[in-house]
Write a structure and sequence with these properties.
The protein is built from 15 helices and 15 strands. Helix 2 crosses helix 3 and helix 10 crosses helix 11. It is globular, with a radius of gyration of 23 Å.
């Protein structure tokens, strides 16, 4: 966050920082804003007036009178604007609409993008998104933007690679294709980073904590919130934990290395191990179809959760590999917390949490200094979509606090929507 000392009375960043103080403060007075920002009461009065005129902040009564002049309370006008988040997943698309506080007020789930090429899906996404807004009676003008969360790499210059089954999605510039169709600014980031941002913005994690979100869909991603900012790395591609090496003599990975976490613990590996046991495959009615990894994995996870012993052993082994990879991250970065998110944890998340705690708690180097909390994201299945909406909110409301790169490249209309 911008330090108070550097705030100039008339910059856009100042307005954004004041709005963020109102947002994160719950209810505040103008005097408190002046104290926290270091700006003069006159500047604060002027900025607050413009925020009220723009429908972003509302008066919320008065602080109890102590005989002198009563202080007006201010708070975020939560229904002043809205944001859309979309989680782009091979298994399914999840749309959420949130208000300015990040509270989900509507959601829609539709089939994933496994089969169709991007052209068809872009048309479908625009249609479904429009339908959801109509259903919620929200005008396009009051939406600050659309955040899109998905797996993949940022290739730079607006190009991106989605690690999805359909090869047509390789190097497809989704944001460029979507923006003109839906008439809203589109931002994209990886699902793990979105999940981390969402948890942070919603206040589910203390602002002082450094934490990671481990996201599991078909593969793994890691979102890192360090010092209140999403860590991005040199090319916006932080978090490729799926290719941390767990066994140097392990199976060949498609990335070129051997024994990567993804090869040992991702849904595909769990399903492959289950298929080696014909009785188990039969019991769980596994399809064995490479394009149906997720439903097959979900069947194993559900069986494990209800105590079927062979399924439990497979999930437990996957969880132990994950725990080993995660412990390294916790130790390297001295994290306070790990949050598990994504559809891969939908059915057997509790088993993963238990196994990771069992491994991390007694082995973390900092165990005598501070605890390392391991938990499931809240709300689990909407973590990426909700976080993607947060991405749009953050860019529109508080660009002063926004990390650079990936998100920045695609976004140029958000701030002006609030002007
Ligand atoms: Zn690999």
């Amino acid at each position: 966050m911008t330090s108070a000392g550097r705030l100039g009375p008339s910059s856009a960043n100042t307005r954004s920082a004041i709005l963020d103080m109102v947002r994160s403060g719950g209810t505040v007075t103008r005097t408190e804003l002046a104290e926290r920002s270091g700006l003069t009461p006159t500047s604060i009065t002027r900025i607050v007036k413009s925020l009220i005129e723009d429908g972003l902040v509302v008066e919320a009564g008065f602080l109890g009178s102590t005989g002198g002049k009563r202080s007006g309370l201010l708070e975020l006008n939560t229904t002043g604007r809205f944001a859309v988040g979309l989680s782009l997943d091979a298994g399914r698309l999840t749309y959420v609409v949130t208000d300015l506080a990040g509270t989900v007020i509507g959601r829609l789930v539709s089939p994933g993008i496994e089969e169709a090429g991007p052209g068809d899906d872009v048309v479908r996404i625009a249609r479904e998104l429009g339908q959801l807004l109509v259903q919620l009676d929200i005008a396009l003008e009051s939406v600050v933007g659309v955040g899109v969360a998905g797996a993949g790499l940022d290739l730079g210059a607006g190009a991106e690679r989605l690690s999805l089954t359909a090869t047509e999605w390789e190097s497809f510039a989704l944001t460029k294709a979507l923006e003109p169709r839906i008439g809203l600014p589109v931002l994209r980031d990886n699902d793990a980073a979105c999940a981390a941002l969402g948890q942070y913005w919603a206040g589910r994690i203390p602002a002082t904590q450094d934490f990671a979100t481990l996201y599991m869909s078909n593969g793994f991603g890691l979102g890192l919130m360090i010092g209140g900012r999403i860590a991005r790395g040199s090319s916006s591609n932080v978090g490729e934990i799926g290719h941390s090496i767990i066994d140097i003599d392990g199976p060949q990975c498609w990335c070129g290395a051997r024994g990567c976490l993804e090869m040992l613990a991702a849904p595909r590996a769990v399903v492959a191990a289950a298929l080696e046991d014909p009785k188990l495959a039969d019991l769980l009615s596994l399809s064995g179809d490479p394009s149906r990894i997720r439903p097959d994995f979900d069947a194993i996870a559900r069986a494990a959760a209800r105590g079927e012993s062979r399924s439990f052993a497979l999930i437990q082994r996957s969880a132990r590999y994950v725990a080993a990879a995660v412990l390294s991250v916790v130790n390297v970065l001295d994290l306070d917390r790990l949050v598990l998110a994504g559809p891969g944890f939908a059915d057997a998340g509790a088993i993963y949490v238990r196994e990771i705690r069992k491994y991390v708690t007694p082995h973390a180097r900092t165990r005598g200094i501070h605890p390392v909390v391991v938990d499931l994201a809240d709300p689990g299945l909407d973590a990426a979509a909700g976080g993607a909406a947060t991405l749009a909110l953050q860019h529109a409301l508080t660009p002063h606090a926004t990390a650079p790169r990936w998100s920045e490249v695609e976004f140029d209309g958000g701030a002006s929507r609030l002007a």
